[in-house]
Amino acid sequence: MVQSSSSPGSYIYTSTRLRVRKSKLLTPAEYHRMLNMGLSEITRFIGETEYQKEVEELGTSFSGVDLIELALSWNLAKEYQRVIDMAPGTLKQFTKTYLERWDIYNVLTILRGKIQGLSEGKIKEVLIPAGSLNKMVLDRLLAEESCERVIDGLKNWHLEPVLQSHAAAAISSGSFSQMENDLYKKFYADLLKVEEQGVTGADQFIKFVKLEIDTLNTKTIFRMQADAVSKASRDLFIPGASFTLDELEQISGLSDQVEIIDALSARIRNEPLLIALEELREKKTTLNEINIKLTKAHLEQMERLSRIHPFSIHSVLVYLEKKKYEVANLRALARGKESQLPGDVIEQYLVI
Fold first, then answer.
1. Which residues make beta-bridge pairs with 2?
2. Is the pLDDT of residue 208 over 80?
3. d(Cα 158, Cα 156) in Å, to the nearest integer?
4. Residue 343, Cβ neighbours under 10 Å: how many?
5. What is the pLDDT, as a whole number, of residue 113?
6. Please, which of 103, 175, 196, 214 could form a disulfide with 131 given CB 3.0 to 4.6 Å?
7. Where exactly does CATH 1.20.1690 map onto the chain?
8. What's the distance, CA 104 to chain centroid?
9. In the CATH scheme, what architecture does the domain 202-311 have?
10. For residue 196, what pLDDT band results from cuts at 50, 70 and 90?
11. pTM here?
12. Is-contact 209 192, C-beta < 8 A?
């Protein structure tokens, strides 16, 4: 078994620092204040928070939504790097491994941007260089002239075989959805392999990974129901958590939402998710409302696990996830205000 050389004190110190960082995240009251602001007021407000340095640095070259987008991206990437730097022992290993999910996001964002003919600068605004593909690598990929050249530039990336297997069909059709599905399935399969490696603390990390897989699969089932998919596709699901692929395919084939909730509730042992499912049983909701409710349940369970195991990977991951959704909320606010959407409409897309 691999043992951590870090002392218990370093884990306590890191967990304490992350609790302080988490306490500085924006509150529901602050989001509600911003819902009543204009775009320029939101920019000023953000510039007085933890995003102050990025807003000031970029404010001379950018404005409006572009300024907010880039400031948020820079801040998130730098904050994730700070967490990696402070995490001791196996917490660092788990954190770096999990943050490689941003590699998938960045590669797909670049590919989709190239297909759509977006400028390098516009694509770069929303990249989050927080994974193993650093800023230098991403800048090099951005400079490539085509999607084919981007993929060729990733020959040393461990997920490059997945890209190559879908490249021709994805570029020809302009759709990267199947490529995206398979990239994330491979990503989660690799995360689950940690359980076989005998790493100290892996049991808690695997508990988090399976929690996330259950949440993603549940969202997929409701999305398929909302889209009235006539034939269930097991390719859309991620294996390895509470359900087998056969079970997920069977549940997704149910047409009645109450039957779906019954089938999910029979196996899931995540209390916040069970409560969320029961609430969905009682009334008709939109797909967006379902996704928001399931996301909140996921974050609540992560919070519970971090309290039960305060000096484990949960204390790191719950902060990383809450920080991610803070950035997503601020982006939704900025884009909504730019599109002149009413505050009550924008609020429906916030995880608060």
1. 199
2. yes
3. 6
4. 14
5. 96
6. 103
7. 202-311
8. 11
9. Up-down Bundle (1.20)
10. confident
11. 0.91
12. yes
